[in-house]
Amino acid sequence: MLNPIEGEIFSVDKPLGWTSFEVVKKVRTRLRKRLDIKSLRVGHAGTLDPLATGVLTVCTGRATKRIEELQAGVKEYVAHMRLGETTPSFDLETQVDATYPWQHITRELVEQVLQQQFTGSIEQVPPAFSACKIDGKPAYKLARKGKEVEIRPKTLVIDEIEVLECGLPQEPTLTIRVVCSKGTYIRALARDIGVALGSGAHLTALRRTRVGDVSVENCERVDTLIARLETEEMVSPDRAEQQRLEREREANRAAARQRKAQRQARQRSRAPRQSQIDK
User: Could you give phi then psi for residue 27, rounded to 5 degrees?
Assistant: First the structure.
């Protein structure tokens, strides 16, 4: 039985073209209608760009308090890149703005650069087209207006990075698997890899395949989750509130028992000293 008010955690395979907020909105709207309530907290742990797919963790009710904990988990991505071209957003959201030679790049050079420059602790400047805040405003809003965006570099950790597919020397395409820490922008990683290879690069596709212990194979499609929320039995708002009050009362009783035990322990520890004084 689901208890969205107390808190549920759903693992969703975010579809291509959807924002993370659109997934949250879809789940929240369905739950509010099903429970016949006006408000319900729903959030996600770790934003995925509209052009990315894969694992998105959605939390409801009091489980939203765990968002920081959940998004801190190690993440795994499969990234498809095109070498020799750059775009302002570092992916296909914007048009190609510059081209570079790529014929000198070999698979051996790619693997050498990845292991020597993109493994372990690295410095990364997030993309201007990102949700990073500049004077309280998301950087992407400023970037889309053509304004200059200056973002400070961040220290990240790349645990694993490997080449899965390489189109070289026929085609300037590359597919890599990346296991990294929270806050890593794979678009920015593609940009930096292009520079390190003496060329340019941008993402053509991105899939988040794991967050913490949750892999994409264990995720639900959005439409499957919404259909389940229509039919699965749920704890009513009244019952959820009753359960919350019962837990609070039990917690208060447990705290009272603990305080009583501590008082008794202090009294026992003082008793021998008092008997020595009496002697």
Answer: -65, -45
Residue 126, Cβ neighbours under 10 Å: how many? 20
Average pLDDT of each block of 10 consecutive residues along the chain (279 residues)?
94 97 97 94 94 97 94 95 96 95 97 97 84 66 69 91 97 98 94 97 98 96 96 87 78 86 84 57
- 192 given a catalytic annotation: no
pTM of the model: 0.84
Architecture label for domain 75-211: 2-Layer Sandwich (3.30)
Report d(CA 109, CA 172) in Å as an integer: 13
Active-site hit among 13, 36, 49, 159: 49
CATH fold for the domain made of 9-71+216-238: Alpha-Beta Plaits (3.30.70)
Max Cα separation, the chain? 98
